[in-house]
Amino acid sequence: MVREEGDDMTKADLTELRRLHTACRTIEEHIDRLRSSAERYSAPLSGMPHAPAWQDQMAEYVARLDDLQRRWTEIRTEIEIKGQQLEIELQILGPEEYRIMFMRYIEGYGWHKIQRRMHYSDRQVFRIHAAALVKLSVNVS
Questions:
Q1: What mean pLDDT is predicted for residues 110-124?
Q2: Are 127 and 96 in contact (CB under 8 A)?
Q3: Are 31 and 76 in contact (CB under 8 A)?
Q4: At what angle do helices 11-39 and 53-89 cross, to 10 degrees?
Q5: Can you give the pTM of this predicted structure?
Q6: HEC readout, the chain
Q7: Which whole number is the average pLDDT over 19-37?
Q8: Quick count: other Cβ atoms within 10 Å of Cβ 124?
């Protein structure tokens, strides 16, 4: 979903960017689990004939890994495009507002991590975030 010039940013646009970050992290976790599972499989070391079941499992792992990596690349590309669009719109904000919006929507940080990085209370972060939304004229629809 690429927005046209002049379109108002909606809360759904911001939420979608957060959802993409979550999807990307989920895929990264799946890839890590898949790689660690694949490390357990190796060719039988005995000289006895074996059915090639381990080869089938390894081929299945490789195919699943390829699918996951392809999906991860698609999501990262979408995050980059939407993040660049948002970053342009964030230029009108003050430094604190910009930093909170950047961390929340472009870097995909949760509220707690933003609070720790900025050394602000949760109320202060939420207040600054709300002010940034007003400045950006974000439609909550």
A1: 94
A2: no
A3: no
A4: 150
A5: 0.69
A6: CCCCCCCCCEHHHHHHHHHHHHHHHHHHHHHHHHHHHHHCCCCCCCCCCCCCHHHHHHHHHHHHHHHHHHHHHHHHHHHHHHHHHHHHHHHHCCHHHHHHHHHHHHCCCCHHHHHHHHCCCHHHHHHHHHHHHHHCCCECC
A7: 88
A8: 14
pLDDT at 109: 92
End-to-end Cα separation, the chain, in angstroms: 16
Distance CA 105, CA 96 (A): 14
Give me 36's structure tokens: 């660690």
The encoded tokens of residue 139 equal 């439609």
Rounded to whole angstroms, the Cα distance separating 141 from 54 reads: 52
Around Cβ 35, how many Cβ atoms within 10 Å? 12
C-beta neighbour count of 27 within 10 angstroms: 20
Residue with tokens 């599972």: 37
Both tokens of 45, joined, read: 């070391």
Contact 60, 41 (CB under 8 A): no
- Whose structure tokens read 């590309």? 77
Phi, psi of 51 (to 5 degrees): -70, 145
Structure tokens at 94: 């003050």
